[in-house]
Design goal:
Elements: H1 5-14, E1 24-27, E2 32-34, E3 48-51, H2 54-59, E4 63-64, H3 72-87, H4 95-102, H5 106-117, H6 121-138, H7 143-149, H8 155-162, H9 169-173, E5 180-188, E6 191-197, E7 202-207, H10 211-217, E8 222-225, H11 228-242, H12 258-268, E9 276-277, H13 278-284, H14 291-299, E10 312-313, H15 326-337
Parallel strand pairs: 2-4, 5-8, 9-10
Antiparallel strand pairs: 1-2, 1-3, 5-6, 6-7
Helix pairs in contact: 3-4, 3-5, 4-5, 6-7, 13-14
Length: 338
């Protein structure tokens, strides 16, 4: 089983949907096994054993709960995986047809998919189309060719989907062309820190990167040295690194999808000195089953420290990953707890 018994029991008491599919709860006195989120009355802890899945529970002589249908968790995961494949194909189906193909009622499957992926099938499809269009434009295709090849029926839908990104679609199309980005590399006690900003706010904070790395993210932007306003932001970013317990409020230009933005806002609400798990973040943004999607959005954070993705750890209490090294992550947390 991927979680320890204490964590599993806590999830059962809280009826935490985020743990559905990670284990099943076996009630030895009744001979029934359930999902962690089962709404039935809680059994006594002494009568409970935890099993990796329904197969293991049945091997121990238990039968599935008819109320929470624990074996349907595996069915849901298989259906969502099949739906992703269909949506990523050349002729993605609408929701009604998608649900029929995976064997669910449309509205029920929309909820199943949203719990797993953090977004509805329609939004998932829009994010795929937007990513394809942006990739094509960065490779030299015109806006018109890129958006129609990506599956957009009209340019208005493309521009609406692009609105959350921060830069205009034409700027994305030309890899940041017509966008001026001011930048600098500063020395901190955690190593060399790169800071970059548009006129709207900071668009990147990273470590061990330089102009070549920044150019890879914005290949056609105009890169210029920071000015007086930028210096104020740079001083604030350095202060955040040196004393993350008293982080200044600085303007950000980070774009992102609505789900990414929700995750990043949740990260900013974690108090300094505290940590959360990916499961906690998924629940905080209203999608408790979207643990993997929350982890992905956490890893796509463009402004380290200012959006404190270092405050997210694994369920077992270990640090997990960090783009700029676990030593930096541990040190940031140590400074916050000091």
């Amino acid at each position: 089983m991927c979680v320890d018994a204490e964590t599993a029991w806590d999830a059962v008491i809280r009826r935490d949907r985020a743990f559905d599919g990670q284990f099943v709860t076996g009630v030895m006195t009744t001979g029934i096994y359930c999902r962690p989120s089962c709404a039935a009355r809680h059994p006594a802890r002494v009568n409970v054993r935890f099993f990796e899945d329904g197969v293991a529970a049945r091997a121990a002589g238990l039968r599935a709960c008819k109320r929470c249908l624990p074996d349907d968790v595996t069915r849901d995961e298989a259906a969502v995986a099949q739906a992703r494949t269909l949506l990523e194909g050349d002729d993605p189906p609408a929701l009604v047809e998608l649900a029929r193909l995976v064997g669910y009622a449309p509205q029920h499957f929309a909820r199943v998919f949203a719990r797993a992926e953090g977004m509805t099938p329609a939004r998932y499809l829009r994010s795929l189309r937007l990513a394809r269009a942006q990739t094509a434009m960065r490779d030299g295709a015109s806006v018109t060719d890129a958006l129609y090849d990506a599956g957009y029926a009209t340019s208005s839908r493309f521009y609406a989907d692009s609105a959350a990104i921060g830069m205009t679609p034409s700027a994305w199309a030309r890899g940041g062309k017509d966008v001026t980005i001011r930048w600098a590399v500063a020395q901190t006690t955690l190593g060399d820190m790169l800071l970059a900003a548009t006129d709207r706010g900071i668009c990147r904070l990273s470590f061990d990167e330089g102009e070549t790395d920044l150019r890879a993210h914005f290949p056609h932007a105009t890169l210029v040295p920071g000015d007086t306003v930028f210096q104020h932001w740079l001083d604030g970013a350095i202060a955040a690194v040196e004393d993350p317990q008293h982080m200044p409020i600085l303007p950000l230009d980070i774009g992102g999808t609505s789900f990414q933005q929700a995750v990043w806002r949740a990260l900013q609400r974690i108090p300094a000195g505290e940590t959360r798990t990916y499961s906690d973040i998924a629940k905080a943004v209203g999608h408790p089953k979207a643990v993997r999607a929350a982890g992905t959005a956490n890893g796509q954070n463009r402004v380290s420290v200012l959006i404190p993705c270092h405050r997210v750890i694994r369920t077992d209490g270990t640090l997990g990953g960090y783009a700029y090294g676990l030593e930096r992550k541990a040190e940031l947390l140590r400074r916050e707890r000091a």
